[in-house]
Specification:
It is a single chain. By secondary structure, the protein is mainly beta. The chain contains 2 helices and 20 strands. The protein has helices at 115-119, 257-261; strands at residues 3-12, 22-23, 27-29, 32-39, 51-58, 70-81, 86-90, 97-100, 106-114, 130-143, 151-154, 161-167, 178-179, 183-185, 188-198, 201-208, 216-225, 234-243, 248-256, 273-286. Strands 1, 6, 7, 8 and 10 form a 5-stranded antiparallel beta sheet that branches. Strands 2, 3, 4, 5 and 9 form a 5-stranded antiparallel beta sheet that branches. Strands 11, 12, 17, 18 and 20 form a 5-stranded antiparallel beta sheet that branches. The longest helix is centred in the middle third of the chain and has 5 residues, at 115-119. The radius of gyration is 20 Å and the shape is globular. The protein starts with a strand and ends with a strand. The model is unreliable at 149-156 (pLDDT under 50).
């Protein structure tokens, strides 16, 4: 059964008191407890700068839940324009359904909104040092595995694999997205997915191929767009599990189109772009 719940939270004086992290009170949606987690100056653990970070966290007692539990939701965040009484709505247009499970209790946006845009009085997001953030949580399904156990093996001598994807005639790319050839890293098969023109940004993702219902691969990945002039590459890095319900990970706003096409940065030279993926697999599933 699908259940929708709206939650709003009013926040003030965060900047004045230099609060690094703020958590809302718990609220209920679909029979589960949730809370909003806000980083007013960006999530420092993910090296976020000049942005507000916002996440939804499932308040689950994992010890009381059955093996293989998973809760999937359609999630939208919003920020109130107090001048016009309208909301800025932020959602992942590329992957609307988010699945929460024991290894992934939090979803959201590292770069929810730029601080310059947030603090601009014309936008009405911050009025009298007060702002209103919210979330709409639409619970779409709940699943539980058959109860069979699974062994998760950590790889102590893991090594990194690199793959470079050469994209030619970049300015002529007209499709919404493009896939690289499949490559292998850590005994798994992967591919890169690039969105050349998504909301004035270039988006970049890494996808795990050949997944099974019990897939659970923990991998560190670094995605780069290479600077072909000065070798000052732009990159983003994360360590996250890849599962049957979460096979694709990456960044919607990897680099702005203005920076990407600026010849000073060297990301596009003679209409050629070089994308690099560095993948290190630390853990893989196996039978009990």
């Amino acid at each position: 059964m699908a259940i929708v719940s709206d939650h709003q939270h009013v926040i003030s004086l965060l900047a004045k008191h230099e609060v690094q992290k703020y958590e809302s009170m718990e609220f209920e949606a679909g029979g589960y407890k949730w809370k909003l987690v806000l980083y007013p100056s960006g999530n420092k653990s993910k090296s976020v700068k000049d942005h507000i970070s916002l996440y939804l966290t499932l308040m689950a007692d994992t010890t009381s839940l059955p093996l293989g539990w998973e809760v999937c939701v359609v999630l939208r965040f919003f920020l109130l324009d107090q001048n016009k009484g309208k909301y800025l709505i932020v959602e992942d247009a590329l992957e609307k359904e988010k699945c929460f499970h024991e290894m992934k209790l939090e979803w959201g946006f590292d770069e929810f909104i730029h601080l310059k845009q947030f603090n601009d009085t014309c936008n009405g997001y911050l009025v009298d040092d007060t702002c209103v953030f919210g979330a709409e949580v639409f619970v779409t399904k709940e699943t539980i595995s058959s109860g069979k156990g699974q062994c998760f093996s950590m790889i102590t001598d893991a090594h990194s694999s690199k793959h470079v994807w050469k994209i030619e005639n970049f300015s002529k790319l007209n499709a919404q997205s493009y896939d690289s050839e499949v490559f292998e890293a850590g005994g798994q098969k992967w591919k890169l997915i690039l969105y050349p023109k998504y909301e004035d940004h270039v988006c970049l993702f890494l996808k795990l191929e050949e997944v099974t219902p019990t897939s659970n691969v923990r991998a560190e990945r670094t995605l780069r767009i290479l600077d072909q002039v000065d070798a000052k590459h732009i990159f983003k890095k994360s360590i996250t599990p890849f599962t049957a319900s979460s096979t694709t990970w990456g960044w919607r706003y990897f680099v702005s189109s203005s920076d990407f096409y600026n010849p000073v940065f060297g990301y596009l030279v003679q209409d050629v772009c070089l994308v690099e993926a560095k993948v290190t697999v630390y853990g893989i599933p196996g039978p009990m």
